[in-house]
Amino acid sequence: MARIPKELVDQIIHHADIVEVVGDFVSLKRKGQNMWACCPFHHEKSPSFSVAPAKGLYKCFGCGKAGGVVQFIMDIEGTSYVEALKYLAKKYGIEVEEEEKTPEQQLAQNEKDSQFIVSNWAKDHYHKLLKSSDEGQSIGWSYLRQRGLNQTTIATFELGYSLDQWDDLLKSATAAGFEQKYLEKTGLVVRRDDDQGHDTGRRYDRFRGRVMFPIHNVSGRVIGFGARTLKPNDKTAKYLNSPESEIYHKSDVLYGLYHARQAIRTEELCYLVEGYLDVLSLHQGGIKNVVASSGTSLTDGQIRLIKRYTDNVTVLYDGDAAGIRASLRGIDMLLEGGLNVRVVLFPDGDDPDSYIRKVGDQKFKEHLDQASQDFIQFKTDLVSREAAQDPVKKAEAIREVLQSIAKVPDPIKRQVFLQQTSQTFGIDEQVLITEYNKISRQASPKAAPSTNTSSGSEQRPRTTSPASTGQTPAAARPARGP
After folding, report:
1. Which of 308, 337, 398, 446 is the most exposed place for a label (fewest CB within 10 A)?
2. What is the mean pLDDT of the chain?
3. Which sign does the torsion angle of CA 420, 421, 425, 430 carry?
4. Cross-strand pairs, 216
5. CA dihedral defined by 317, 266, 307, 364, rounded to 10 degrees?
6. Side-chain half-sphere of 56: how many Cα atoms within 13 Å?
7. What is the largest CA-CA distance in the chain?
């Protein structure tokens, strides 16, 4: 492995501003002499991760992670000391001169770095095919331009095309000196087994005849791919993603976050969509603070990623009622993660990608401003319409809304939501609080009794400070998830 001279190491560390570097990954806020954030290394709702600019050090008082700027990159990226230095050198425009290495020597640095290297090479290979091959131009490029994407967007997101051949990538990567095992570990190449699960010795490309969407981690390294088939009546899945690997864990990835993170911090808002093309069209239309869950159900890891950069998320839905219903649980998870959640609906038949192409950038932005509504109010309106005049359905609808309110950690917000729900359904607020307390106790069986009783009737939870009573009213107590 190539060695970086100590003088150059010192130069890199001298130029690397720890606040700037850490700020690429979390949203830091000043408190006293230090900067604070929720820790990017473990799940927490109250900030215990501190950066001391004067000392050039970070420390989490929750999980114990600590160190300097190089150690931070090693921890956050899971990479080697040398790769962390090279990352910082690139960020600050410092040229690192190393002895020339063969592809085999690069791959030998370590297993993880080898997978990053081969993934980056595959990205370049697919991008070159999109721009230069006859098939890529006539099929892949034509499709992307048909979807309204310009050359700048295609280049920014490094889109590509995989030839409709069984072994184009395998042959090209082998010729370039890459070991087959890393092609398999990243899922770029698939091993063919017989019926008994034994290796037949045959290998083939996973992605064939598809437009390629490289998936980047938060520092911009390619960790996997999404791929869309363009064959009519194709029996295979329309979208195919890289499998899980040492570098790609889909539950901890949001498509577009690398390109969106700065805008999310600046705007203090993250737009959440479903698909790759939604992200690309909105980014091209000037809405940079947008990420996608890429068709998967939201996970705790993805929610923690958003919370690194902002507490505010707006979910963009198409007008399909069944799709909205299926997504409600994911939004409950956003609430439970302590995020402020709003919703924007689009007309039936439109998704964010199709709508911005139909009405244009300016009208789309106006729609985002005008149609945005708080999620609890949105859900209340949705389920109340579905319940109509049916008393039984209405009671169930109210319970659904209360279950979402129970996910909100902030007691003041919960109280406001209860008041709003009371007004929308025309139900006495005290009745809602009583039912809410039941749901809260079910979600957290060990919780203390939530109300005081007088003359056999349940009363509104006290609003006095928990410190003055020694007990937290259940309506103001964060309820744990089921």
Report:
1. 446
2. 85
3. negative
4. 222
5. 0
6. 9
7. 85
Q: What is the Cβ-side half-sphere exposure of residue 190, based on CA atoms within 13 angstroms?
A: 11
Q: Give every CB contact of residue 151 below 8 A, 6+ residues apart in sequence.
A: none
Rounded Cα gap, residues 361 and 284, in angstroms: 9
Token pair for residue 436?
């809410």
CA distances from 16 to 82, 88, 290 (A): 15, 7, 28
Q: Please check whether residue 379 is in contact with residue 328, taking contact to mean a CB–CB distance below 8 angstroms.
A: yes
Structural tokens at position 434: 């009583």
- CA dist., res. 437 & res. 451, Å (int): 8
H helix and E strand count, the chain: 22, 18
Q: What is the CA radius of gyration of the chain?
A: 26
- Write the DSSP symbol of residue 259: H
Q: Would you give the DSSP letter of residue 196? A: T
Tell me the whole-structure pTM to 2 decimals.
Answer: 0.77
Condensed to tens digits (0 to 9), the pLDDT of residues 275-326 reads 999 999 999 999 999 999 876 788 988 998 898 889 999 999 876 666 677 7
The model's pLDDT over 359-405, given as tens digits with 9 standing for 90+, comes to 999 999 999 999 999 999 888 888 888 777 788 988 998 999 999 99
Q: Residue 391 to residues 163, 321, 325, 387, 396: CA-CA distances in angstroms? A: 58, 22, 21, 8, 9
Q: How does 9-47 read in b/e, with b if 16+ C-beta sit within 10 Å?
A: bebbeeebebbebbbbbbbbeeeeebbbbbbbeeebeeb
> What is the Cα 226 distance to its own chain's centre?
15
DSSP 448: P
